[in-house]
Amino acid sequence: MDQEIINRLGVITDEEREIINGRTEIDRKRYTEGRELVIDSKKMLEHGKLIRIRPHTRFVHFPRHKHNYIEVIYMCKGETTHIIDGDKVVLKTGELLFLNQHATQEILPAGEGDIAVNFIILPEFFDTAFEMMGEEENLLREFLVGCLCFNPRYASYLHFEVADVLPVQNLVENMVWTLLYDHPNKRSINQVTMGLLFLQLMHYTDKISHTREGFEQKLIFQVLKFIDENYKEGELTELAERLSYNIYWLSRAVKRLTGRTYKELLQIKRLNQASFLLLNTRLSVTDISLAVGYDNTSYFYRIFRSYYSMSPKEYREKNKTAGLTEHRK
Question: In what order do the strands lie in the sheet with 96-99?
């Protein structure tokens, strides 16, 4: 990260000055008016704001707490240690930590050289990012949405070990710079930047760790990533061989963890890709059917109609007409 930004974020804050001068615990009134330690977005954000950054408070133990907003922590320099729902997470330079609203977090004291920036974000800020990710519907997108919106099937936090991924580092630095220096149009700029960040992070599922149910969460990621990259010809047999799992065990695990069979997940991906091609290319329906893995065009027509309640041609015409109407407005 740019040294000028690190220097600015590393300045001793008024809160930290109080701690250095003898305060032995955080000042709860800075964070909440309630009896329980739920950090309140009304304390953290100005009225009408959807996002803000603040340096992580060093030199003190931050006791167990929750947030009524989504928190994203970026480690600019050094490291911090977090206890999240009982898991120990060490956040190192260049890494990202996403916490949903129901995660319970505790943070061990950090030193002066441990500089982190906290993004305080209301859920509606992510609308643009999810729309950008949804231009081609994606099961990995569904996983990220579930994590951030606290679907209990998914993780309460996501730890991205992406210090070596330059595009991710650049995008995070751009958001920090825009917010730190109060750039004009910063909300729209950062909403788009967050969308680009998510699109980048979706390519690095191998660099994600999550809750103590890590094995199951990792397995979901592996299955969804395989489908995402091999939807045309990817068979469960091949995936089982890659992961060295018994195919019958893997089939049952996929159903238990996602609520859908592997075949259903594969079909959803294929149909979502088909809808994307219908709206964004001039390929014929036959060519699109082949492109997404269906040799039998009649079968493709049948399952497409069952899923979207209209034929591929009707889907293309209806959505193009809707797009033209919206454009004229």
Answer: 51-55, 115-121, 70-77, 96-99, 157-160, 208-209
Cα–Cα nearest to 158, from 198, 117, 190: 198
Q: How far apart (Å, rounded) are the C-alpha atoms in residues 221 and 268?
A: 16
Which residue type does 298 have? S
Model's pTM, two decimal places?
0.68
3-state secondary structure the chain: CCHHHHHHHCCCCHHHHHHHCCCCCCCHHHCCCCCCCEECHHHHCCCCCCEEEEECCCCCCEEEEEECCEEEEEEEECEEEEEECCEEEEEECCCEEEECCCCCEEECCCCCCCEEEEEEECHHHHHHHHHHHCCCCCHHHHHHHHHHCCCCCCCCEEEECCCCCHHHHHHHHHHHHHHHCCCCCHHHHHHHHHHHHHHHHCCCHHHEECCCCHHHHHHHHHHHHHHHHHCCCCCHHHHHHHHCCCHHHHHHHHHHHHCCCHHHHHHHHHHHHHHHHHHHCCCCHHHHHHHCCCCCHHHHHHHHHHHHCCCHHHHHHHHHHHHHHHHHC
What average pLDDT does the segment 252-259 reach? 87
Closest CA to 136 of 326, 279, 311: 279
Would you say 114 and 77 are in contact if contact means Cβ atoms under 8 Å apart?
yes
- pLDDT tens digits along 142-153: 656 666 665 555
